[in-house]
Amino acid sequence: MSKDGILFDRVTFIGIGLIGSSLARSVKKTGSAAHITVCDINQAHRDKAVELGFADDASGDFIAAVKDADLVVICTPPGVCGDAAAAFAPGLKEGAIVTDVGSVKQSIIHDVSQHLPDGVHFVPAHPIAGTEHSGPEAGFAELFDGRWLILTPPAGTDETAIAKVRTLWERAGSQIEIMDAQHHDMVLAITSHLPHLIAYTIVGTADDLGEHLKQEVIKFSASGFRDFTRIAASDPVMWRDVFLNNKEAVLEILQRFSEDLTFLQRAIRWGEGDKLEELFSRTRKIRREIIEAKQA
Ligand SMILES: NC(=O)c1ccc[n+]([C@@H]2O[C@H](COP(=O)([O-])OP(=O)(O)OC[C@H]3O[C@@H](n4cnc5c(N)ncnc54)[C@H](O)[C@@H]3O)[C@@H](O)[C@H]2O)c1
Ligand SMILES: O=C(O)C(=O)C[C@]1(C(=O)O)C=C[C@H](O)C=C1
Predict the structure, then answer these.
(1) Cα–Cα–Cα angle for 146, 141, 7, nearest 5°?
(2) Residue 146: which residues within 8 A CB-CB, separation 6 or more?
(3) CA 173 – ligand 2 centroid, Å
(4) Each residue's pLDDT tens digit, 213-243
(5) Which residues contact 106 (CB under 8 A, 6 or more apart)?
(6) Gap from CA of 8 to ligand 1 centroid (Å)
(7) Which among 12, 14, 16, 18 is the best mutation to test ligand 1's pocket, defined by most ligand atoms within 8 Å of the CB?
(8) What are 89-101's pLDDT values in tens digits?
């Protein structure tokens, strides 16, 4: 498939926040679409997308927004992808490709697929890149450069549709991996969802401390805590939806985590320094491996 030039005549983004606007900027920059339309329930976001120049037009009408679209990219919070699909599905043309960027895959596949008419191809996707910021002004075209993009197409998904979505992301600089949706949800539960839950917990614990101590937590914030506050500043709606929609995998990983935490608690209580040192050496090695894989 061609690595430059127009890949889709018309692309429509449903939801134009951090991820939607980053991909729209990349699509504009690489010339992958002749025309970009955005649809968002927030009028200020629609206006901003046109003002910033990565959208050619904007609409609050879901059906009108996808009319003649060759590709529709759902970039809403995970919990409303199905509602959005229900709203735009009647406007889709035969042969259109629908994709998404949601952080959970099984629930979105379930919620979206049921609304799509025959003859429309759904290629679920998830970029492993983001920030703690939200909205169309927070996006940037380079966000996906050198990052992984996971595709989770159900068995039988049209191969040409998969290849076109793959090319779109390759042009954004992503490396592509194809994975089963259930496996995706388990892997992301450990690499992304649990870290966010831990960050929310730590910062919440600090916040629950008395007012006096809280001031000191902010004043003397050490870099470890500071790093957690960045993650804990992530979008509350998106992350509420992630935990509610990847419940099983998150609860399973959380159980394993609590057991490991209890192990550390015991090691500290009984002065078992060898156990602490052995674990901390293993985890330091993982950090080095992530740096070597250029994912730090
Ligand atoms: N933030 C990240 O780090 C990150 C990384 C990878 C994937 N994702 C996924 O990307 C998706 C979008 O996240 P984001 O960070 O861009 O969020 P965001 O809050 O920046 O943007 C979401 C946009 O969707 C709009 N919206 C909300 N409900 C809508 C609806 N029913 N119909 C149309 N528009 C609606 C909002 O107005 C907003 O403009 C989520 O599914 C998330 O799981 C996020
Ligand atoms: O860098 C960040 O701020 C992120 O949290 C990005 C991050 C993650 O790495 O966990 C968050 C959610 C995703 O779906 C993908 C990426």
Answers:
(1) 90
(2) 173, 174, 175, 294
(3) 17
(4) 777 877 777 778 888 999 999 999 999 999 9
(5) 181, 182, 185, 246
(6) 22
(7) 18
(8) 999 999 999 999 9
Tell me the chain's radius of gyration from C-alpha atoms.
21
ipTM value for the complex? 0.98
CB burial of residue 191 (10 Å; 0-12, 13-18, 19+): exposed
- Domains of the chain by residue range: 8-179, 183-292
Atom of ligand 2 lying closest to residue 192 CA: 10
Rounded to whole angstroms, the Cα distance separating 118 from 135 reads 33
Q: In what order do the strands lie in the sheet with 148-151?
A: 125-127, 148-151, 175-178
CATH for the stretch 183-292: 1.10.3660.10
The residue type at 75: C
Residues 6 or more apart from 10 whose CB is under 8 A from it? 33, 34, 35, 36, 37, 68, 69, 70, 71
**b or e along 34-71 (b: 16 or more beta carbons within 10 Å of the residue's beta carbon)?**
ebbbbbbeeeebbebbbebebbbebbeebeebbeebbb
Q: What pTM, to 2 d.p., does this model score?
A: 0.95
> Which two structure tokens, joined as six digits, stand for 6?
């127009």
**Does CATH place domain 8-179 in 3.40.50.200?**
no
Burial code (b: 16+ CB inside 10 Å, e: under 16) for 2-12 equals eeeeebbebbb
